[in-house]
Amino acid sequence: MTEKKHIKAAVGAVVFRGQEVLLVKRGRAPLKGHWSIPGGKIEFGEGARAAVKREVREETGIEIDVIGLIDVFESLPEKDGDGHYLMVDYVARHLSGEPVASDDAEEAEFVPFPEALSRLAWDQTRTALQQARLAMRRAEDRSKASGDDGHL
């Protein structure tokens, strides 16, 4: 009998510190050795926002404020053995800490937005970064206009 395969739910965060974006160099498959945004699998019983805060903290030591949802992306298996992932990506603001690679990240650092775009290995992550920058600008504009906390 063939084992039934399942979709894996994951989260990611585009974390801004001013005009810089937090990136990690992946230490595990998929895309081992490539730059990406911090994130990982959602644990059973864990909310997506809690998962993204945990994943960013585990991979980088950074504490974040989740501003809002960017989008949901999908990674389909291209060859036997690849996973099928549904990724919920959020835009977030840096609260505290300096990036220190840990868990499954080989490196972690804040880089200028244009450099972040050029380092990324996956087109959908570049799309998430561009959408996150627009979402962050909208949140900041609303915050300035209304005096609220800027959450989406």
3D structure, described in words:
By secondary structure, the chain is of the alpha+beta class. It has a single domain, classed as Nucleoside Triphosphate Pyrophosphohydrolase, CATH 3.90.79. The protein is 29% helix and 36% strand. It has helices at 48-60, 113-119, 123-146; strands at 8-17, 20-26, 35-36, 39-41, 63-75, 85-96, 105-112. Strands 1, 2, 3, 4, 5, 6 and 7 form a seven-stranded mixed sheet that branches. Strand 1 and strand 2 form a beta hairpin. It is globular, with a radius of gyration of 15 Å.
CATH class value: Alpha Beta
Secondary-structure content class: alpha+beta
Taking all residues together, what is the mean pLDDT? 91
Distance between the first and last residues' Cα: 47 Å
Q: Can you count the helices?
A: 3
Largest sheet: 7 strands, mixed
Seen as an oligomer or otherwise, the chain set is: single chain
Radius of gyration over all CA atoms, rounded: 15 Å
Order of helices and strands: EEEEHEEEHH
Total domain units: 1
How much of the residues is beta strand, in percent? Answer: 35-45%
Low-confidence stretches: none
Shape: globular
CATH fold naming? Nucleoside Triphosphate Pyrophosphohydrolase
CATH superfamily: Nucleoside Triphosphate Pyrophosphohydrolase
DSSP, total strands: 7
Topology record:
Blueprint: E1 8-17, E2 20-26, E3 35-36, E4 39-41, H1 48-60, E5 63-75, E6 85-96, E7 105-112, H2 113-119, H3 123-146
